[in-house]
Amino acid sequence: MTDRDWQRAVLHDLGGLESGLVPPSPRPAGQAAPPVPPRVESPWTAALAASQPPPPAPAAPQAPAPVAHSAPDPRPQEPAENTPVQESVPVEQPRRVSARNPGGPSMDWVTAQIGAPVPSCRRIAVTSVRGGAGKSTIAALVAGIVRRYRADRVVAVDADPGLGSLPLRVGASSPSSLRHLAAARPRSWDETAAHLGRTDEGLYVLPAAPGGAVSGPLDHHLFHQGVGNLSRYFSTAVIDCGAGVSEELQRGILSGAHAQVFVTPGTVDGALSARAAINWFVQSNYTDLLHRTVIALVAHAPNPGMDVKRAVQMLSAGGLPVVYIPFDRHLAAGMSIAPERVGAAAHTAAVQMTAAAFARSLAVR
Predict the structure, then answer these.
(1) Within a domain: 166
(2) Angle at Cα 272 formed by Cα 51 and Cα 248, nearest 5°?
(3) Is residue 30 part of a domain?
(4) Tally of structural domains, the chain
């Protein structure tokens, strides 16, 4: 069956793209249901249907703690060095709907998802099949949002052996690198922290190489050794992987990931590439990871037109959650991301994407 036939079989009017997670469109009252086309099975839809686990139960928001009347520290307090990550607690947030987008997710809902206690460091891999899809931008957004909703430590790790741009996007430099951390074998938090950069918001960052240089060969053993040194000190590690999913390094990262955010351009061509990658995940025995995957469909132009609707239709037909990230001028500038300058639509979609990915990461103990 050709791609054209496959697309025709799944076309339907979705709408609601600006909300991030794309819901099905309601049918007008009194209108008869359209004829149901023959079910189109692909290897990945059949595999997902056969082994679909129940969705993770949302964590119940905890009761607010008493608030002291002294002036608060603008940055959350660091947990003690030996505080185990399973004792992490949600950050108490104001109980109101986001002022940036009154129709967006409430802070209570987001805090319940992202601020839930974790049994161990959650590794969220951000991947794509090509360069230029917006992977590092999405990784920076995910890491920054998780940091804002948690009281414990969060780290963004650049695992791109080429010219990774994650440190630039989060706005922090580091005197060291993943390679140096792996070789140093630190034995305490102070020794570990000496290898990390930190943003003004308290997000830690670990580049693949210091100063934006090309890091050279980076294998999974080196990555595992470096990130393994971080796991006991952090609740979450957001990993910006290199382009592609089939290399040994990426396969190793995915094997240890608790969740994945798969990034693809918001075009029909981007959706076709993503569909091919999803087929590869199934054929390579990563079906379990697909259950914990969120697809980020990123618009790279102000007016994507019908391309983005067709792309959403093509990808959501397989049952995976698809989050549309609309074009944002600040994000498109390619510089350090200032959260207050991100538009309301892109911000809301990014928060929903992050909450969905984090909730899925909790399905693995």
Answers:
(1) yes
(2) 65
(3) no
(4) 1
Does residue 272 lie within any of the structural domains? yes
Neighbours of 5 (CB within 10 A): 9
The pTM of the full predicted model, rounded to 2 decimals, is: 0.75
CATH assignment at residue 313: 3.40.50.300
Instruction: Please name which of 364, 363, 358, 365 lies closest in space to residue 90, comparing C-alpha atoms.
Output: 358
175-208 pLDDT, tens digit per residue, is: 888 888 988 889 999 999 999 999 999 999 998 8
Please list the helix, strand and coil fractions of the chain in percent, rounded to the nearest 5, in that order: 40, 10, 50
Within-domain flag for 83: no
Hey, what are 325's tokens?
């990230």
| Structural domain for 148, as ranges | 117-365
Cα separation of 90 and 102, whole Å?
Answer: 23
Those residues whose C-beta lies under 8 Å from the C-beta of residue 85, and which sit 6 or more positions away, are: 118, 119, 120, 121, 152, 232, 233, 234, 235
Q: Average pLDDT, whole number, for the chain?
A: 76
Beta-strand runs (E) in 37-87: none
